[in-house]
Fold:
Amino acid sequence: MSGFSFYFPVRIKFGVGLWESLGEEALKFGRKFLLVTGKKHLKDTGILEKIQESFNNYQCDLFIYDKVPPEPPYYFVDEGAEIVENNNIDAVIGIGGGSALDVAKAIAVRCKLPNSIWNYIGADKVPKKGIPCILLPTTAGTGSEVTRVSVLINPETKEKLSVASDYLYPDLAIVDPYLTLSLPPNYTAYSGIDAFIHALESFLSLNNNLLTESISLKAIKLIYNYLPRVYKNGERINLREKVLYASTFSGIALTLTGLGAIHALAHPIGVYGNLPHGLSTALITLPVLEYNLEILSREKLILLGRTLGVFSLRSAQEKIIKKIKDLFDSLEVKLGLRNYGIKYEDLPLLAKEGLKSRAIKTNPREINEEVLLNLLQKAW
Ligand SMILES: [Fe+2]
Structure:
């Protein structure tokens, strides 16, 4: 760890009930909006109706694009961008889990670009700023509301890759624990695990620095202490708030440092096993961690250990891994890729796909295809 650069242009408004200020906040960006969301959640909870009412009161036009599925294919971005172009939309609003938010922020840049968003996969390929974008997460997990990344799928090639650019940062993130209240226990667990792994991989990343380190350690501690309680008592907004703080912190940390081999492998695991992203990360975490912790400095081992309640350096690696296994157990996550329809003979293909991920570059220990295959075999 040595010098670092810091650029983080997102205004974050965090607090219970803030979602009701969306109309007022949106007015700062124009009068015509495209609201990007998933198919059900906003309608079922009655939130969509209230938002429409408030935009009506402000005499603003609100176009609704509520088609975004989990693990969104890239062409939803292209389709949404067409609506923006055809209707002279001033700004995009994304409300939902990571998928809706990733699609929303990609639409905001794609509408100013000539080609399909899939042409801009990779780091810093987006050449210019798009239109303004406001994001409101309804899960405490991806941290997408504060990152410069949009993760998309290409169903033809079965690739899950990301567009990463400073132009993808939203202008405003309204982060309200109220919106996460209706998330069911299993998705609360999966998205919380995702946030935990973001913080963990950011802490271990080759690009981490003292600033991101303190953000990620805080997130690790909050999730470790509160996620099992939220899993059992999802109606308690004060607990939801803690995990949402943590997922936002994790998002900030990951976008500044990049991730590691857990995410590199979780993406193909998710695509081939058709699994929720947070679950895919859990399935590969322990073998990757075992591999990475072997070379972790004494100083960082102490920091990570203390955060998880491991106070002795003797067998610290094993104790840390045990703590994380305990977290997964408390969330009733069954490990073993074999339990999720992933075939042993598919593992070489998953290793090959994992190697394409940018997250490999920031993994703290060197990775090649053979190592990835070995980790997948251990996780099987
Ligand atoms: Fe993730």
